[in-house]
User: Fold this.
Amino acid sequence: MSDQTRKAEQFRGLHIPGKPLVLFNIWDAGSAKAVATAGAKAIATGSWSVANANGFADGEHIPFALAIDNLRRIVAATELPVTIDLESGYGDTSEAVDETIRLAIEAGAVGCNLEDSFPANGKLRETLDQADRIRRARQTADAANIRFFINARTDVFFQRAAEQHNDAMVVEAIERARAYADVGADGIFAPGLSDITLIARLAEALPLPLNIMVGETRICSFGRYCVVRLHYPPSGTRAGNPTRISSLGPKRHHALDHASLTNVEGMQRIEL
Assistant:
């Protein structure tokens, strides 16, 4: 078994109900080392963090070659499994996504986020189009003989303001999630959704583990629901914000890790 294959299995094995996996979003090799030193079990990049740390706006504005070089340095800096935020896949076609996944795996990643909106305007792709992109990603990963974790992000809830979210949008997210699951996605990420009742309905109906993006004050609210991963937006004080987290140091990282774990009993994976 190769080292990367072992890390991929290790990463999947960390997803245990009732034992949350805390992922602090990092942006370079230095931040990866800091988080690893604090006791993290895996490393996750955030597209906003990586782009801004390199002087670019989010939304696939950072050159993909630079993003891959950055990933390669991160992987080399830690013995932990690394998952990368690949945004919309860096390409208009499913063939382009194929190449994106191939290069991410070659650079050492064991998982990715892959979203279903267009980076230029945030509008949703057709479900069948996105399913084809995820299918190609799954095929590429399987051809590499690695259990690559595809976290399929749906931006349904970014299409309207939070106060306009409703059951119809939940139904659309469920339909998309089922289509993505059928072609090989391993998890569903639904950022933008904050209504706890709608989150509960979505979690109950999904065929895959649900990921939600929330503010840190909402952690305890999710313990009774089937949410398995919480993602903090990088505008906060957590690891997604290079200008704020760099001043915290490893001791503060450890404190955040401990606090998060003790407040989310019953969940499986948290991304900070």
About this structure: Confidence is low (pLDDT under 50) at residues 235-268. Residues 127-143 form the longest helix (17 residues).
